[in-house]
Amino acid sequence: MTIVIYIISGLFILLTVALMFGYRRTQHAGLFLMAIVYGASAALALWKMHWWPLAAGFALVWIMRLLGMEPPIAGDERGGMRTEAGQNSEEKNKT
């Protein structure tokens, strides 16, 4: 179980670094908060050598995403599913 904790904590640290780069580009506070949660849960899991901080951090980040702290997709004002051509399904039906 120890190796699994090391692997998942390493992935969380990579997510932390990626989210911090995204925060540096966009200055979106949600990215910063999600990076802090991922990093703190990885550090706590490595310190305590237990799995529950990883599960708690993952759950907290998903709650933050559900609350709208994830930045919007560029050029997607209305949302909806994208087709292969990059258009919304409603836009494709208009043409």
Structural features, described:
It is a single chain. Helices cover 69% and strands 0% of the residues. By secondary structure, the protein is an all-alpha fold. The chain has a domain at 2-66.
Attribute tags:
mainly alpha, 95 residues, 4 helices, elongated
How big a fraction of the residues is strand?
under 5%
Order of helices and strands: HHHH
Which of globular, elongated, flat, extended, rod-shaped describes the shape?
elongated
Helix-strand makeup class: mainly alpha
The biggest sheet, with number of strands, parallel, antiparallel or mixed sense and barrel status, is: none
User: Distance between termini?
Assistant: 55 Å
Helix segment tally: 4
Please give the number of β-strands.
0
Parts with pLDDT < 50 across at least 5 consecutive residues: none
- Mean pLDDT score: 85
> How much is the radius of gyration in Å?
17 Å
Overall helicity: 55-70%
Question: How would you summarize this macromolecular structure in one to three sentences?
Answer:
With 95 residues, the chain is mainly alpha-helical. The protein contains 4 helices and no strands.
Question: What's the structural blueprint in terms of helices and strands?
Answer:
Layout: H1 2-26, H2 29-48, H3 52-66, H4 89-94
